[in-house]
From TrEMBL:
It holds the Pfam family MFS_1. This is Major facilitator superfamily (MFS) profile domain-containing protein. Keywords: Cell membrane, Membrane, Transmembrane, Transmembrane helix. The lineage of its organism: Bacteria, Pseudomonadati, Pseudomonadota, Betaproteobacteria, Burkholderiales. InterPro entries: MFS, MFS_dom, MFS_trans_sf. It is a multi-pass membrane protein. GO terms for molecular function: transmembrane transporter activity. Residues 231-419 form the Major facilitator superfamily (MFS) profile domain. GO terms for cellular component: plasma membrane. It is found in: Cell membrane. The chain crosses the membrane at residues 28-46, 58-82, 103-124, 165-192, 235-255, 267-285, 297-318, 330-349, 370-385, 391-412. The keyword Membrane applies.
């Protein structure tokens, strides 16, 4: 049998590249829709609890638990399911689940049913993450993944800024916000309705770390990947500790500002500054990756992040007044540094994790992070009751700076060959 002429090979390659480009643009648009739906629903849930159902703080806490705990308990197994099925189909079905959850929240006749629907919404939010990670990895090479990480972070931060404003406008104008959210989800279904011609089927049949038929426990798969990939392990552990540090002090930030005599609007301004810093980080991330090694980038982000938390505590101990402009500037850097760390861990997972278990590993990592984010505020609050607010900030900042120094000083061993 004769090989195809060179022209035919070139045309076939160009066709495949064009199909991948269109598929990538659809996937990126899907990410934007999904991020908007996530933040619209999150805002509407707690707006409804406060103003429609007029609940107390205990019910608010219960709702938050119902929204977040499914990610801790079911996340790793959802990722394993995505690894064994077509991620494009799984992403499409996630929009169906999100639309169903939004309509259920809109039509819930009683508070208990509304709370059950919140748990359903939390479960529906689990599918998109691992499916998108798999699709981005199969569509893009390592160089393109860097730019993609910046774009995804920019989309997420934009949705985090503007979607809650849209949800608040819906509440103010008495518009059916959950129905609008469901409509957006159905737009996602339509966007993904046609499966691309490029092969996106599950890679689980290739064997690898999952073993035959994906029989290994998800935590065993996760630990095996971290054990065999030291660079991935280093980035994950340092950024996981950063997430713990964030949860340790973040819930106390408003109280810290109040104790220092700042005005009521300062906390909201700091939230905006953090988002602005994260957006700035997403814009420079590609350039930073091109000019800095992952080890240097990880150490720099951790040290900068810790310094922004440590500085206010040191200034309080030194009895130095912290001007509002200084606090706002610090939290721009805070959002920048934490955002760079988050993008780095996403990129490292996509580049170094075996494809056949990428959904399992990223979902398990996310569940671990959520668990620490739940525990950390409790520990931070307990420590502040025993000592002081500024001591919590001092401990958090010093820990992050120490992590950065560790990342810079201790070399990473080479990855073990994947069998």
């Amino acid at each position: 049998m004769r090989p195809p002429p060179h022209g035919a090979t070139t045309e076939r390659f160009a066709l495949t590249s064009a199909l991948r480009e269109r598929s990538y643009l659809r996937l990126l648009a899907s990410r934007a829709i999904g991020a908007a739906v996530l933040w619209i629903d999150f805002t509407l849930i707690f707006e409804s609890l406060a103003f429609q159902w007029t609940v107390d703080t205990v019910v608010i806490g219960l709702a938050m638990m119902l929204y977040g705990v499914p990610g801790v308990l079911a996340g790793p197994w959802v990722g394993a399911v995505v690894d064994r099925h077509c991620p494009w189909s799984m992403l499409r079905w996630s929009y169906v689940l999100r639309a169903t959850a939004a309509l259920a929240l809109w039509l819930a006749p009683t508070l208990p049913i509304f709370l059950v629907c919140i748990a359903l919404k939390g479960l529906a939010n689990l599918l998109p993450g691992p499916a998108e990670q798999l699709l981005f990895r199969r569509l893009l090479n390592n160089e393109a993944l860097v730019a993609n990480t910046s774009r995804v972070a920019l989309i997420d931060q934009g949705a985090k800024l503007f979607a809650p404003l849209f949800a608040a406008m819906c509440v103010a104008c008495r518009l059916p916000g959950f129905a609008i959210s469901a409509s957006l989800s159905m737009t996602g279904v339509i966007l993904l309705s046609r499966r691309p011609s490029v092969n996106y089927e599950s890679a689980s049949g290739a064997g690898g770390l999952n073993g035959s038929n994906g029989s290994r426990p998800v935590w065993a798969v996760f630990c095996a990947v971290l054990r065999n990939h030291p660079r991935l392990r280093r980035v994950f552990v340092v950024t996981l500790c950063q997430a713990f540090v964030l949860g340790f002090y973040d819930a106390l930030l408003a109280l810290f500002l109040k104790a220092r005599g700042y005005s009521d609007g300062t906390f909201g301004n700091i939230v905006g500054c953090t988002a602005a810093g994260a957006i700035l980080g997403s814009l420079v991330f590609k350039t930073a990756v091109q000019h800095l090694s992952p080890r240097t980038l990880l150490a720099t982000s951790s040290i900068l992040f810790g310094a922004t938390v440590l500085t206010p505590a040191v200034m309080v101990y030194a009895d130095v007044v912290i001007p509002p402009s200084t606090m706002l500037s610090l939290w721009v850097v805070n959002g920048f540094a934490y955002g760079v760390g988050s993008m780095l861990v996403m990129l490292t997972f996509q580049q170094h994790c075996p494809r056949e278990v990428l959904g399992t590993v990223t979902s398990t990592a996310r569940s671990t992070q959520i668990l620490l984010m739940i525990v950390a505020p409790l520990l931070g609050g307990a420590l502040s009751n025993i000592t002081s607010l500024e001591f919590v900030f001092f401990c958090a900042g010093a820990t992050a700076v120490g992590l950065g120094i560790f990342a810079a000083a201790v070399p990473v061993s080479q990855d073990k060959p994947h069998r």
